[in-house]
Amino acid sequence: MTFGRTRAPLSLVEPNGWAQPEAKMSPSSTKDFRVAIVGGGVCGVVCAIALQQTGIQSDIFEAASRYGEVGAGLGIGPNAVRILRKLDLMAALSKEAEPTSARPFKFVFGTGETGLCFEAPVDENDLSLAMHRASFLDVLVASIDPALTRTHFNKRCTSVSESTSTRPRLTLHFADGTTHETDLVLGADGVKSTVRSFVVGEDSPQKNATFTNTVVYRGLVRMNRVKDMGVEIKVDDSGSVVWMGNDRCLTMFPVRNDTLLSVSSVVTDYSVPMGQNAPPPGQPWVLPASQDELLDNFKGWRDEPMAVLKCLQEPTKWFLHGMYPPLNSYVKGQVALIGDAAHAMLPFLGAGAGQGIEDAYVIARLLSQPQTNISNLEAVLKAYSLVRVPRASDVALRSKRCRDIFEGHGPSGPSSQGRSADAKGMWEAVWHHDLDADVEVAFEWLREQKTWT
Fold first, then answer.
1. Taking a C-beta distance cutoff of 8 angstroms, is the pair 285, 318 a contact?
2. Strand partners, 317
3. CA angle, 383 as apex, 382 and 388 as ends, to 5°?
4. Mind listing the pLDDT tens digit for each residue in 286-343?
5. What 3-state class would DSSP assign to 138?
6. Distances in Å between the alpha carbon of 130 and those of 126, 139, 188, 291, 356?
7. DSSP annotation string for 57-92
8. At CA 194, angle to CA 193 and CA 195, rounded to 5?
9. Strands lying side by side in the sheet with 105-109
10. SS3 for 147?
């Protein structure tokens, strides 16, 4: 079996000239199993939409009182855009943010050397999307069909239990004392996943995400204010800009049709192993921060990046956690993890949301096949894990390497030449992966196991 062939074959060209991959979701016959999705974020909602488009009903259980996302800008790379096209979501998303050819990533030094360090190559055929995270989710939610997807709010899942009295049945337990029985659980409950504990075991150290020793000060700034501050690099023309330093970096990219700038100021402690100096138990992973604290962390940086930071008056401070080391499996029995619950990763490739969208697509393709039924769900979920673990783990580790490169800790050192060499090929491997080839590998494995004929 071969994983990770490059770009899927492109054949269908739409009126706007963008090539679209051939495979689309196929209709499903009536299924004899019930699906529960824990978590109503981007990944959970995309998964529900993918399932409903094949006729599969699902229940979404969301802890909050309504749909909503916390965060600022969200970058969707070409690999995820291709899936959103297959799910017929791009037309609605385009009303909020016009898809564009993938913009170049410019890398410059925040201290020391001046001028462009290197520029990540882009393919003019690659389509990307940059949006405010909450706006992205709002568009997705509008595509939910209540006849096929039922949403239950104020349902914080506290545990999952299993019964085999008649046939394997799963029970979701909620903080309000209620329960829900189902045949299949998809844990899309994020980096602090409760469902993960069921999959890896209560005693496993991997039931909780690891503090990555990285904090990020985030916020949105109006583009016209940045221009008024005289920032040298025209971020509205160049796409993402990464200012690199030692143990620090500053990334920015435009959202909301170039009217806002999403700013992330990153500080990492490399003096101790990953996981040490974690926030104390019970402390939120997102806190308000002062502008003085932010500016103090970047003291001595050049005028241009400091001008951007001075526009960020009320930043939020994020303690970044991730699944490091990556999980070896995303499934146990008839329970599967998707999105950050499975592979929460550092954000330095802008690929975390895209990997969750890939999960949703693969699992919907598998569940919608006519031969998938209640008797073989465990095997079908194993096939999902078989193809998704190596792919998402590779992206997660690449993202960590990108952080190290941007902050001067790459294998070739902190020089301009070293960082440029280390970053070569990072994005292409993420953007041009052939996901439909992975689906075919999963299909082949199920036939080899005689799960399917």
1. yes
2. 217, 287
3. 95
4. 999 999 999 999 999 998 889 889 988 899 999 999 999 999 999 999 999 999 999 9
5. helix
6. 13, 14, 22, 25, 16
7. -EEEE-SSSS-----SEEEE-HHHHHHHHHTT-HHH
8. 90
9. 116-120, 105-109, 241-244, 248-255, 260-268, 210-222, 316-322, 286-288
10. coil
> Going from the N-terminus, what domains does the chain have, and what CATH number goes with each?
35-101+126-209+324-449 (3.50.50.60), 211-322 (3.30.9.30)
Whole-angstrom distance, CA of residue 3 vs CA of residue 8: 13
CA–CA separation, 341 vs 200, rounded Å? 11
**Token pair listed for 262:** 């999403």
CA distance 44 to 24: 19
Q: Which amino acid belongs to residue 439?
A: V
- Token pair recorded at residue 440: 């075919």
Q: H helices within 312-376, ranges in order?
A: 340-343, 352-368
Residue 106 confidence (pLDDT)? 86
Specify the pairing of strand 35-38 against strand 184-187: parallel
CA neighbor of 107 nearest in space, from 369, 446, 408, 344:
408
Rounded Cα distance, 220 and 262, in Å = 5
Residue 310 structure tokens: 């001075």
The distance from CA 29 to its chain's CA centroid, rounded to whole angstroms, is 30
